[in-house]
Design brief:
The chain is an alpha/beta fold. The chain has one domain: P-loop containing nucleotide triphosphate hydrolases (Rossmann fold, 3-Layer(aba) Sandwich). It is built from 9 helices and 5 strands; from the N terminus they run E-H-E-H-H-H-E-H-E-H-H-H-E-H. The protein has helices spanning 14-25, 32-41, 45-56, 62-75, 91-103, 118-132, 139-153, 156-161, 175-186; strands at residues 2-7, 28-31, 81-85, 110-115, 166-170. The chain has a 5-stranded parallel beta sheet, with helices on both faces. The radius of gyration is 16 Å and the shape is globular. It binds adenosine monophosphate (AMP).
Length: 191
């Protein structure tokens, strides 16, 4: 099994690149944002619990997202590998993920960091807001999401860099060039 984290701020292109890797290589994409939005759409108790926090642009509790990921890993142990998209977002989540994978004899093999500057992110998210109308993409909420990334998620960069598994990719390049850089960063990995 090969396990990857697609890492970066909201709007960096993690979801787009994850979907390409799913189609091309048979990975399973685990996006906590997608899982939480599905919970809201189904009006489950979980969906009701997280709605206000998500709309504010803040992070939902570690406990909730760790449980979602734990369930998905346990249900898909025969997968070729997982792509974690939008998870982990805090140090506590990263430590929990290590423990979950380890309990099944697995680990994170690569962390691909998509590097995009804040001005470009704001431009992309404003465009997505106008096209798709996702409420937390509105420019005011997006500032909160970006702040959460810088204060709570960016500290994971040294956490993974120290292990030698972090690779940085220029996420400002054209989509195909980003894909090619990711492929290069994954070359040689064997599950
Ligand atoms: P995303 O689509 O990944 O940007 O996620 C949308 C929203 O879902 C975030 O702004 C958070 O409120 C929540 N969320 C998604 N993933 C996580 C996570 N790993 N930890 C905490 N909150 C999350």
């Amino acid at each position: 099994m090969i396990n990857l984290i697609l890492f970066g701020p909201p709007g960096a292109g993690k979801g787009t690149q994850a979907k390409r890797l799913v189609e091309g290589r048979g990975f399973i994409q685990l996006s906590t944002g997608d899982m939480l939005r599905a919970a809201r759409a189904s009006e489950s108790l979980l969906g009701q619990r997280v709605a206000a926090v998500m709309d504010s642009g803040s992070l939902v509790s570690d406990e909730i997202v760790i449980e979602l990921i734990d369930d998905q890993i346990s249900q898909n142990l025969s997968a070729h590998g997982f792509i974690f998209d939008g998870f982990p977002r805090t140090l506590a989540q990263a430590i929990a993920l290590d423990g979950l994978l380890k309990s099944h004899g697995h680990r994170i093999d690569r962390v691909i960091r998509l590097v995009v500057n804040d001005d470009e992110l704001l431009a992309r998210i404003t465009k997505r807001f106008n096209e798709q109308g996702r409420l937390d993409d509105n420019p005011v909420t997006f500032v909160t999401r970006l702040a959460a990334y810088h204060s709570q998620t960016a500290p994971l960069i040294p956490f993974y860099a120290d292990r030698g598994i972090l690779r940085e990719v220029n996420g400002m390049a054209a989509m195909d060039a980003v894909s090619a850089s990711i492929d290069a960063a994954l070359a040689g990995l064997k599950g």
